[in-house]
Amino acid sequence: MFTVNILVVLPILIPLTGAAVAILLRKKHAWQAGWTLVTMIASMVCSFLLLAAVWRGGEPLLFQSGGWPAPFGISLVADLLSAVFVVMTQLVMVTGILYALGSKDKVVTYPTFYPLFLTLATGLTGAMITGDLFNMYVFAELLVISGTILTAIADDRFGTEAAYKYFYISLLASFFMLLAIGSLYAAYGTLNMASLAANITAKAVSPLLWPAIAFLLAAFMIKSAVFPFHFWQPDLYTAAPVPVSAMLSSVVSKFGVYGFLRMTTLLFVAQAPTIRAILIVLGVVGVIFGGLSALGTHNVKRMLAYSSLTQIGFILVAIGWGTALSTTAAIIFTFNHSLIKAALLMLAGYVASRASIKSAAFDTITGVGKPLPAAGFLFFLGSLALAGIPPTNGFVSKMFFFDSGIRAAGYGALLLVGLASIFTLMYTVRAFQRIWWFKPAATIRTKASGDRLLAPAILVTLIMALGIWAQPLVAAAQRTSAWLGDPAVYVQAVLGG
Question: Got the DSSP string for 389-413?
Fold first, then answer.
């Protein structure tokens, strides 16, 4: 059993150890880059093995740090939800490193870039596997520090400003999370999530419970840039290096989604109806506001940043409906969106790297794509996926989303987000036309070389594969949703009995 349970630790330990070794290789850039890729691939393989082990075993896998039993020690818990999210995270992280290997940005040559990329992966993976709220906070801080520095050292002159915004808004999220942690510990005497779930269910409602819920909601809303805590996101994604912005927009933003799922299916089951009602309202507003904002932008990376606000809105609404099918839809949507958004941001970076002035502003990249048909084809497929058009994985996401909304009788929210989703097709078509159809300005030239297409090509291939053959992801999401419907499985796996 121990040899199986060690898989719970490896997706965290491998990138963390790899980051330390990468620092030692700082004077040999090629070796450092190669080591980082090998490390991340090894970690991704372990995450797939972890998912397979959890799937076969039929119950969560547990690793008790230091041998201390729960709830006294720090528990690392891999159930289907955390295992699926870790696979999603590490799969996209591998493509991020592949893009960095082919990038012309100066930032990727800095000796700190690849170690920080690995600590970014460590923080996000750890936050999703830990079974302890304070440990989640620690991993989240590692995530923030890594993302802040990677943005601050960007080639873009606005990178430092964007990093400051990200850091200070994340500091506010950390403050809210610490307030929630303190309130829950004072009320229930534990921060182990399984123990908390059992105590909140068994004991009388504490006066500190609802303040803790509000603080946790605010923290996760900031992490996922949910309206109205989204204002830092467009600046960050526009200024950050392309491989970094692709990670922040696609998988790092899903940490908040993971938190919402844990809140509504494990920690606060009795209070979940109120939480879900809030998520539906915020999700609908996010879909509408994000779509309108994306239509009004003049920068393709900024457009995709506002698009994330829209797509996260869909996920929040699905979580808010609270049925087994809508939870399945939320998980499918989350996984698929991570692939789509990473691919589109990489393609935006690829086009910007071929412009005479490196920028993703429409004025600069209009017509730059004319001699780049391969990138245009990939962007077109990615746009279809974002808009939810077959045969892409985005269509599968939207199909499950609308089906779950109808069965949950969420007609009001369904009508609003359905109408607002038309915006997605409008702004992606506009971007495609500007870059690949229009004539460039006289001062704009397309460079003969730029970033490589390998990473976004891999992601678009996965997008199409999961659209044509969606069964593996659908099966994983359905089984995960069934697990989440019975929180006692998680509690018993951690606490025993």
Answer: -TTSHHHHHHHHHHHHHHHTT-HHH
Residue showing tokens 């908040």: 256
Q: Which residues contact 436 (CB under 8 A, 6 or more apart)?
A: 369, 370, 372, 373, 376, 379
Distance of CA 488 to the CA centre of its chain: 27
Residue 233 above 80 pLDDT? no
- More reliable by pLDDT, 465 or 306: 465
CA distance 210 to 206: 8
pTM attached to this predicted model: 0.93
In 3-state terms, the chain is what percent helix, strand and coil (to 5)?
A: 75, 5, 20
Asked if pLDDT for residue 108 goes beyond 60, the answer is yes
The pLDDT value recorded for residue 4 is 58
Helix axes 324-354, 300-321, angle to 10 degrees: 170
- Under the banding of pLDDT at 50, 70 and 90, the label for residue 497 is low
Phi-psi region of 399 (alpha: psi -120 to 50; beta: other; left: phi over 0): alpha
The residues near 143 (Cβ < 8 Å, ≥ 6 apart) are 120, 123, 124, 127, 252, 255
